[in-house]
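Q: I have two molecules that I believe assemble together. Could you output structure tokens for the complex as a whole instead of separate predictions?
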Amino acid sequence: MQNNKENILEIKGLKTQFYTEAGIVRAVDGIDMTVKRGEVLGVVGESGCGKSVTSLSIMRLVSQPGRIVEGQIFFDDRDLLKLPESQMIKIRGNRISMIFQQPQSCLNPVFKIGDQLSEVLHIHQDLGREAGQKRAIQLLTMVGIPEPESRIHAYPHEMSGGMAQRVMIAMALACVPELLIADEPTTALDVTIQAQILDLMRNLRSKMDTSIILITHDLGVVAEMCDRVVVMYAGRVVEEAPILELFKSPKHPYTAALIGSTPVLGQAEKELVTIPGSVPNLIDLPQGCKFAPRCMARVENELTICTEEEPPIERIAPNHQVRCWLYEKELES
Amino acid sequence: MAQDLEQNGTAPQKRRVLVEVKNIVKHFPVRGGVLQRTQGWVKAVDDVSFFIYEGESFGLVGESGCGKTTIGRTILRLIPATSGSVTFDGKNIFDVTANELKKLRRDIQIIFQDPYSSLDPRMPIGESIAEGLRIHTDKSAAERYDIVVEMLTRVGMRADHARRYPHEFSGGQRQRIGIARALALRPKFIVCDEPVSALDVSIQAQVLNILRELQKDFGLTYLFIAHNLSVVEHFSDRVGVMYLGKMVEMASRDDLYRDPLHPYTQALMSAIPIPDPTLKRQRVILEGDVPSPLNPPTGCRFHTRCPLAFDKCSQEEPPFKDYGEEHYAACWLLETGEKGASKLTRENLPDEVRLVEV
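A: Yes, here they are, computed for all two components at once.
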């Protein structure tokens, strides 16, 4: 933890594929991504863009028929993909932990909340039963669960969605992880409960100094919570920029369309941008840029290269990267 | 419609009411024990009244369990109401003969949230779209096919799609098929129950734009049920806000979003994250969860979470009243007559309530 290096996590050329009867699903197809110490990195994209598979790959939780086929994931100078499982167990839930979209289905229905929390503490911190329960009460208090002394005896089905998500957060933060991966943590919750959970995450982050990867499809949540954003499409990173810059001047046509298609509170007259077609089939990806078949900028600029060759990701400003031929042209001229 | 107005010489504001929901109540029994006796009642909708003008989109918003979907289904008579009435085009739909009901079913259609589960997986989508025509009209197979093709084109799909099955389409396409099916009988009124909440944003915009266009072309009236306030603002002309089986506020879209009167509406709006990182706002975060509709709080149902609640709120239910220009709300603070008394501002809020900077 005394490491002064700027990045806590570095993903290089990660490819995760699923071997199905229909063919090979290229869910994550060569992504590079870094998470800086103490930052909240947003990962946005629509369903099937590979954002969840990326997070499962970091945790090495990709299950059959999926497999990580290529790449490196450096955490604290070690490649997680090369660690033996016995070492990975010590990191998972301890130094890197994760919260999921459906809190109710991530908690074990037959164990009490308190027991599930103390299990984490027993495994990673070798706390005994009594000490574990005591710490569990502290953790539940920290995440704002009323009457934690009696709540540790509750079963998951006795809790509301918001409360269950608080328990998940308590469990994820039990060992004060250096990196927290939150995969759509508020998507299943009502907005007033979402506001509670986001507020809780903000407070805990300022207290614990944990780096966070926040995976979401909600640009509002991104704008509110993140320092930097990675936009994904069809298993690739298409744009990466600091939060203000991304919203002020989105460079990739997909990012721009995504922002343009989101209805915004207080802007009833906003004309919603539509993206024609739908996301490509990950088994049979189009040639060239994966967004090209839906890209209006390609048509307007009469670019032919887009459907022939895939653009590389280029740095167009110190903190701004984009994968698009439009900017490639700019660079050359 | 436009002719009516000219002939009657009425102002455009005094439009014709197409749907009127009056004091509707829906309680679901909760059964339990060996004998499956009724042990309690879920008060899903409890005395809700509103009306929808012809040709408008009426948005109904609220969080899960507030009763918005139940209202949509009772209007369609998909579930029977416990009491109350729904008038459509001057007829009480709870009180019509079987024949009249069949006729009404043509005029009132529904679009569901999950287009996959609402389409028959073993039926080519063309047949699904034509099914209503087969039941309600005596059109020949060829005529029906023409209508199917017309509807498919209207929602941006191709004629040859008619022979394919639901699983061959993406979520957005299936929702467009759902719209084509609802539209085939040329209804006057469509209940859209969370039509875009299962869709990705880019596809959501496609579907919303299609619904808008169809409304213009066919003079449709919509009841637009959704939990997403930004989508509702974008789509609706008038909006009703529900909380725990009650309507708490109802107004024209602009009035509601610019000047929300009910503390719940204000809290709901301030809870929405806005996709603009430069925008700084103050947010009141509501404590706790929505209470159970099995045993709702006395008085105003929101009083257990309302940061401005006072004694009267827990004792007596506030009236749902028009506070000017058809801006209805139910809050005791509005009854005090004091200007801005119901606003969640620093001056009104008790000191212990935190305003969060976002």
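A: One point stands out. Confidence is low (pLDDT under 50) at residues 1-12 of chain B.
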